[in-house]
Amino acid sequence: MTTRRQFLEHAGALGLGTLFTPMAAGVTRAAEETVAEAAKIPGLVFEKIEAGGISHYSYFLGDAVTGVAAVIDPRRDVEVYLELARKHRLRITHAIETHVHADFVSGSRELAARSGATIHASVEGGTSYQFDVEPVRHDDHLRVGNLDLKALHTPGHTPEHMSYLASVQGEPSRAWGLFTGDFLFAGAVGRPDLMGVKNTDRLAELLFTSLQTAFDELPGAVPIYPAHGPGSPCGAGIVEREGVPTLGVERASNPALQFTDRDAFIADLLFKQPPVPYYWPRMKAINARGPEVLGELPQPPALKPKEFKSLVADDGVQLLDTRHLFAFGGGHLAGAINIGYSASISMWGGWLLDPNRPVALVVPTQGEVSQVVAWLARIGVTNFAGVLDGGMDAWVMAGERFETLDQLSVHDLHEQLRKQRIQLLDVRQPSEWDHGHLPEATYMFLPEVPKRMREIDRRRPVAVYCGTGYRASIAASLLQREGLKVYNVPGSFGGWLAAGYDVVVPRAPGKASDTRRT
After folding, report:
1. What is the arithmetic mean of pLDDT over 417-422?
2. In angstroms, rounded to a whole number, what is the distance separating the alpha carbons of residues 186 and 259?
3. Which of 152, 208, 303, 321 could form a disulfide with 362 if both were Cys (CB 3.0 to 4.6 A apart)?
4. Tell me, which fold does domain 302-397 have in CATH?
């Protein structure tokens, strides 16, 4: 058994806290000078757009002098780019892909249809597409007005992966940014295990070589702009740097760039990778084939309680309640899955929803149906059968039946465990379990709950916890739907620690992608 103090000390040693290698003198100043220099480029328009939940970054860059713009790695809900173009009076001419993405539906075709942009995509590594693209090869230059984007082939995450070095036309020494896609992140590198076991070793070797050689001639002060930030499963250990990350900072402190031995690099990299989301192969296939052009996001019809009741009576319809865990616990429709209103709906909806079955929505009073639709459209869920008009208030006032989901505080949980009256289920990431878990807990990774719930003793109540209670409420709703007596634990592991209760820390971490823990 480990006390809270011992756990926190242990967590620091394991890397749960943020630990950075001190920057070499002048790196930060040089980076600031580079960013400042970019700001001086006449007419440069540059915006970073974040899609939360999937922790995706896309980039809008334009030249106000010539009136044109490009978007790098656009997401599917493209209105944000069109609005930027309108704001700056620019015409989007380039939709640029760093690679065939696996974690979200690309917005390039949508953007091209809405703006007239040409799609530019790498054909290195023998990659082809089932839709029209302007092929990009190593050392090609894409001209966006007075801006130049030099294509640098950086295979490893995928065979075709391309990074883009941004500079001023005719002045290659004035490089002001490096768009690294899923090749190089702040504190991490892209994973090479998304194209099947037979390709993993080859891609890992390519990744090592690319990291050793691809940017050798570039100065350390060049800022990097990756396609993902912390929380994305596209790389293990992505961090948030203070300010804009640079090549120099990554060379000095990115763990993956410290290896000189290829085999050691590969062993370490593959050991750290989190589980591959079930929906990623589908995303990759969609993006290679060419995503359907929606024109605009779907608008689910608002249905009165009687109509909505008839809709969800169909076993083929998936009922998704996006309210906060306390609201869901207080009352919800039988059979609903609770994925709370946040950008995380993208990721967990991808894991748990069937894109081929219609979705019926319950949305918070203060929530936007269009926002939920956008979050789900990013991972290919676009079949919406309807939304409950008036929400749960209307449902209750219509005299319809509802269920409740009991919430158990960490203090009550502690007492129940002491009396051995309850079984405990941990549904976090495998790496979270390895860093510490509650005593007597059983481990089951959240996305595996639907297919593994037979392993749970149905004769005893089960309490579910995660890091905060958000994921636990998802799992609890899945278990309740199958008839188990279940409690959600708000605060979960974080609340347990804050209350000063003991945790258990395994002697050694397991392979991060292995979802079985004892």
Report:
1. 90
2. 16
3. 321
4. Oxidized Rhodanese; domain 1 (3.40.250)
